[in-house]
Structure formats: C-alpha cells, structure tokens
Amino acid sequence: MAWTANFDPRALRELENLDRMAQQRVVTYLQTRILQRGKPRDLGKPLTGDKTGLWRYRVGDFRVICRLDDEAQRVLILRIAHRKEAYR
Fold first, then answer.
1. Could you say which DSSP state residue 52 is in?
2. Which one, of 42, 46, 48, 38, lies nearest residue 74 by Cα?
3. CA of 3: how far to CAs of 10, 36, 60, 70, 88, in Å?
4. Dist. CA 71–CA 69, nearest whole Å
5. 44 has a pLDDT exceeding 80
6. pLDDT tens digits, one per residue of 58-78
7. Which value, in Å, is the radius of gyration of the alpha carbons in the chain?
8. Backbone phi and psi for residue 61, each to the nearest 5 degrees, phi listed first
9. In degrees, to the nearest 5, what angle opens at C-alpha 27 toward C-alphas 31 and 63?
10. Is the pTM of this model over 0.90?
11. Crossing angle for the helix pair 9-17 and 20-29, nearest 10 degrees?
C-alpha cells in the first residue's frame, strides 16, 4: 500500500502563496521522493524539542514539516515555509 499525503489547511495556504516554480518543486518532491518510495523516513529528519514527533524535508530553501502516520500510511503536511520561517 502506498503512502498518501494530506495537507493541513495552513500548509495548503502556504503552498498556494509560493511562486509557481516553488510550488512545482515541492509537489514534485512530495510525489516522487516521499510518497512513491514507501519509506518517508529515509529522506527526512526527525525534529526535536517542542516539535518531537514531526519530520522535516528540505526542498531547496523551503522546509516541509510533516507528521507521519505509520498505521494509515499517511503523511500529514503541517507547514511549507522558507527555512527562516519554518520552525517558528
């Protein structure tokens, strides 16, 4: 069973606010690298501190912050932001 992606409303707004090239880069990365591989932890890094349990993916200057649900094989995308803003 393949992994699926769900966007938090905030992440969806952040994606829509990016320019077209950045949107395309993020969506392509999610589709080809995370969802199709079947092992989303291989390319991401776990976050620590108050963000324990979340994972981050680097897509150029942008960061995609996610929560991984192994039972449902779902990636919940919580934030898509420039690296300066992503962890605030």
1. T
2. 38
3. 21, 7, 23, 9, 27
4. 6
5. yes
6. 999 999 999 999 999 999 999
7. 12
8. -85, 0
9. 110
10. yes
11. 130
